[in-house]
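Pilot study result, target chain (355 residues):
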Amino acid sequence: MIQEKYNIIGVMSGTSLDGIDLAHLNFEIINGKWNFQILECETIGYSQKWIDKLKIAVGFSELELQKLNVDYTLLLGTIISDFIEKYKIENIDAVCSHGHTILHQPQNGITLQIGNLPEIAALSKQKVVCDFRVQDVKLGGQGAPLVPIGDRILFSDYDYCLNLGGFSNISFEENGSRIAFDISPVNTVLNFYANQLGLDYDDKGKISRTGTVNLELLDDLNRLDFYQTKYPKSLGFEFVKETILPLIESYPIAIEDKMNTFTEHIATQIALALPNKKNNLFITGGGAYNDFMIERVQFHLPETKIVIPETKIIEFKEALIFGLLGVLKLRNEINTLSSVTGAKMDHSSGIIYYK
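Predicted structure:
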């Protein structure tokens, strides 16, 4: 008989390079509905050496990427093992890990998440479910976003689920199908400029708030081809490096003005992404703490009710949902929706490594 309770470690590393999110999770089916608990959770920050390496890895040669993958798998496996030992977590059904995205070019059939090598099972001494994106790309999909099936299963009370991380992405139901797509870069750009001011990030949007919108730059950003494209669509750091930053840098304006303008761009694109402007909007990810950004989103969506949940869900929702994706894979149930990614069919994605 298939089990209905799972003791899981969910692991996620996002493009904003905040660190590696680890969450001890319990899942249980009660009356046909999935319930969850987020227990111990922690974000392990990257060393400056790792941040510098991950920032430039998009330009690495194939040989350099192979070495990076081995080194990162060792790092990740050690961090997972330390987390389990620290909190004395026992009887784990699986570690469900996203890895860290380095390359994402689904139009070329390429997506690479490092940290998903078989050695991770031995390093963590656990069964590991990982590498969720590759199969979808092979099936003609974007390989992203993958979180929306979790939104449907765990957060169905909300009309729109918005994540504000390195990029913004949204998911919602439309005509019986789950629709989801990446909207725009967020912290990949704002953190880049905060770093130039000697800061890790723009706390609560205080720096962005002091700037002024440059209307010409804002117009140029909003007219980029990506925003005219219909979903399914997804973004990688390549878009930031090759398109967004060169455009912003072509304007000789203050960093505060660049950040203010880009925040306005983020809010504008979020508002455009919602088909119905009168429903509720559930916001998670690090950007949920950016008060200025949330104010600008509310400005563009005056009739939308914005809901920001408790801290554990804001910070660990993606680790939570990758935990669920892993559970669904263990059950051989659909965990990737073709309506979201554009793949040929719904499927159960990921690789299982045994300890």
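One observation from the pilot: The first helix runs from residue 48 to 56. A full batch analysis is planned for the follow-on phase.
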